[in-house]
Amino acid sequence: MKPFLLTGCILFAALVASAAQIASTTADPSRTTPEKTASLSGKVVETTNTAGYTYLLVDTGSKKSWVAAPALQVKVGDTVAVTGAMPMPNYHSKTLNKDFEVVYFAAGVAINGNQPMAAGQPPGLPKGHPPITSPSAKTAVDLSGIVKAEGGKTVAEIFAAKDSLKGQPAKVRGRVVKYNPNIMGKNWLHIRDGSGGEGSNDLLITTAAEAKIGDKVLVSGTVVVNQDFGSGYKYSVMVENAKVVVE
User: Fold this and answer.
1) In the predicted model, is pLDDT for residue 26 greater than 80?
2) Can you tell me the distance from the alpha carbon of 105 to that of 88, in angstroms, rounded to the nearest whole number?
3) Most CB within 10 Å of its CB: which of 8, 31, 207, 216?
4) Assign residue 231 a region: left if phi > 0, alpha if psi is -120 to 50, beta otherwise?
5) Quick one: fold of 155-246?
6) 1-5, 181-185, 225-229, 236-240: which has the minimum mean pLDDT?
7) What pLDDT shows up at residue 229?
8) DSSP label at 34?
């Protein structure tokens, strides 16, 4: 039985979001979208195969978690060690016609103590799932020359005033440093404008609009605070359902 290691590029760090702490011109992994990676191990208690993909229900001893990986030879009772797993909350598999509270898309699965084999980005990633990133992936974006939006706030100001801004509309200009499309029905992007420091310089936006890394964007949306999507995705402040204009 040979396990597989899947790697690839995204933008996030990702998800995720997920990434090592990097310079202020890159995305902050402490507040990534679903790119933040995890590791887990345990015994396989259920397995389901689809075209080119294997879903495993892994009992870690404290909980049972679903893991998805490129098709591999595994059976109930095998012991697995999963690394570089990117959680996808509230995932619906059209192939299985099944809703998952969370699925961990594996970057590496070792079966019964065997070492994972290197492999390229698999063709079987579910539709809409972002490519899996290396935890050390970096994307440098030039943040110079970004002017505060008229009548708006800087990224740092939104963090500083988040409690008073809760539920209120806000406008902010910045550059996209991370972008993940079609997650939970929305596009997720992180923007920075050069303001703030660690923990207050990277703002998560959810939107129906499209953008790419490096775009300068004007964002208008509703400020929400203390969002917890589960699986380690917690945000002290973010802007939801935003209008995003690429400038």
Assistant:
1) no
2) 7
3) 31
4) left
5) OB fold (Dihydrolipoamide Acetyltransferase, E2P) (2.40.50)
6) 1-5
7) 65
8) T
Q: What angle do CA 57, 182, 4 make, to 5 degrees?
A: 40
The residues spanned by each domain of the chain are: 4-119, 155-246
Q: Would the CA dihedral through 217, 230, 228, 221 be positive or negative?
A: positive
For 4-119, the fitting CATH number among 3.30.9.10, 2.40.50.140, 3.30.470.20, 3.30.390.60 is 2.40.50.140
Same fold, 4-119 and 155-246: yes
Helix ranges (DSSP H) in the chain: 155-160, 162-165
With vertex at residue 98, the alpha carbon angle to CA 50 and CA 84, rounded to the nearest 5 degrees, is: 65
User: Measured between alpha carbons, how far is 8 from 6 in angstroms, rounded to an integer?
Assistant: 7
pLDDT for position 36? 54
Distance CA 23, CA 235 (A): 20
Euclidean distance between CA atoms 80 and 58, whole angstroms: 8
Q: What is the mean pLDDT of residues 190-219?
A: 93
